[in-house]
Design brief:
It is built from 13 helices and 13 strands. The strands form three sheets. A six-stranded mixed beta sheet has the order 3-2-1-4-7-13. A five-stranded mixed beta sheet has the order 10-9-8-11-12, with helices on both faces. The chain has a two-stranded antiparallel ribbon with strand order 5-6. It is globular and about 60 Å long. 38% of the residues lie in helices and 19% in strands. The relative contact order is 0.18. Strand 8 and strand 9 form a beta hairpin. Helix 8 packs across helix 10 and helix 10 crosses helix 11.
């Protein structure tokens, strides 16, 4: 690692399987919290071939060990291309970067069985980028009895917390999670974010996502279907808890739909948006009733219909609180998760714990990550 550098890169590819978000940020040794600005940002979309393979690897299949290895190599090259874009934009070289934190692509998340699996080849990425790579952030927390997720609440605490005010940060990616920033910091996955909406519009309109939620906005919420979806046991579990495509996937949805016969496709999309909004609102009502504001990040922040559904759901639950984007606190919604992994690389570099036991349920604070030197 360059001795005098305060520059860190964060790379994130999430449950939505659309591509890699990357940021370059400055985190000096004396950083004590507050907004972390992206000095440069980049996005590298997945090819359709890679996206299809990453989706297929979510479930067991033929020759999956070799297929996973090939996908990991392709993913590492996407990460390397994202790093190149960040360096080109900023006028920096690899030698200027202290380290890059890389999440990897989750294909299995079974903390109740003692494991999680993020596809990655950090050794190849270190070779391609000539930058120290910090990866495998979740495993140590799981080894300590935790869920290994969500990991972002610790970052949210450092960046977004305000003394004597309870705030909620809602990250709506493929899966939605909340960080409750108050006297005690807690957080958990609330359930589906965009994952079911993306899958449904992909199957029926061949689109990767519902832009601005326009398709959902044209339909009507089906109360009986919404209740059937909300009856999933996961929603009633107490935290710490985390979830992913292992539970919420197209087969799960179709199993729920089977009892309802022929439904209007647009109405199903409207109901899926309501599922995301109401389960988020329920989690906030039960676990953060003293919240003074909700700040949203992730891809769902760009869905105007979903944002309005969340406001409505909170009001219906007696929570008359503002819902805004994290940009109001100085960080663009699409930069938050990648910045979190730059911050986690910084924490590893400082040999400082990156998890919050109150969030994950781990037996104590742990230094997260493994180093692959340049």
């Amino acid at each position: 690692m360059p001795a005098n550098s305060s520059l860190y890169i964060g790379l994130m590819s999430g449950t939505s399987l659309d591509g890699v978000d990357g940021v370059l940020a400055s985190l000096p040794p004396d950083y004590q919290g507050g907004a972390v600005q992206a000095l440069a940002s980049a996005y590298v979309p997945f090819t359709q071939e890679l996206r299809t393979e990453l989706m297929a690897l979510q479930t067991s299949g033929n020759d999956e060990i070799q297929r996973e290895a090939h996908a990991a190599n392709s993913l590492a090259r996407c990460y390397a291309n994202c790093i190149k874009d960040l360096l080109r934009q900023s006028g920096k070289t690899g030698g200027d970067i202290r380290a890059a934190g890389v999440h990897g692509q989750t294909i299995r998340h079974r903390p109740e069985l003692g494991y999680t699996r993020q596809i990655n080849n950090p050794a190849l990425l270190a070779e391609l980028s000539r930058i120290d790579i910090v990866a495998d952030f979740r495993s140590r927390d799981i080894a300590a009895g935790g869920q290994g997720a969500p990991l972002v609440p610790a970052f949210h605490q450092a960046v977004f917390a305000k003394t004597e005010e309870t705030r909620v940060v809602a990250n709506i990616g493929g899966i939605a999670n909340i960080s409750i920033l108050g006297e005690q910091i807690t957080g958990f996955d609330t359930g589906p974010g965009n994952v079911l909406m993306d899958a449904w519009i992909g199957e029926h309109l061949d689109r990767p996502y519902d832009e601005q939620g326009n398709w959902a906005a044209g339909g009507k919420i089906l109360p009986d279907l919404l209740q059937a979806l909300r009856n999933e046991t996961y929603f009633a579990l107490l935290p710490p808890k985390s979830t992913g495509r292992d539970l919420f996937h197209m087969a799960w949805l179709k199993n729920k739909l089977a009892a309802f016969g022929q439904l209007d496709k647009e109405d199903v999309q409207a109901t899926l948006a309501a599922l995301t909004a109401t389960t988020l609102a329920d989690a906030i009502r039960v676990h953060a009733p003293a919240a003074r504001a909700v700040f949203v990040c992730g891809g769902g922040a760009q869905n105007a219909h979903l944002m309005q559904q969340l406001r409505t759901a909170l009001n219906e639950r007696g929570l008359d609180i503002p819902v805004d984007l994290t940009s109001a606190l100085g960080v663009a919604p699409n930069h938050v998760e990648a910045l979190a992994f730059a911050w986690l690389a910084y924490r590893f570099d400082r040999r400082t714990p990156g998890n919050l036991p109150t969030v994950t349920g781990a037996s104590g604070p742990r230094i997260l990550g493994a180093l692959y030197p340049a």
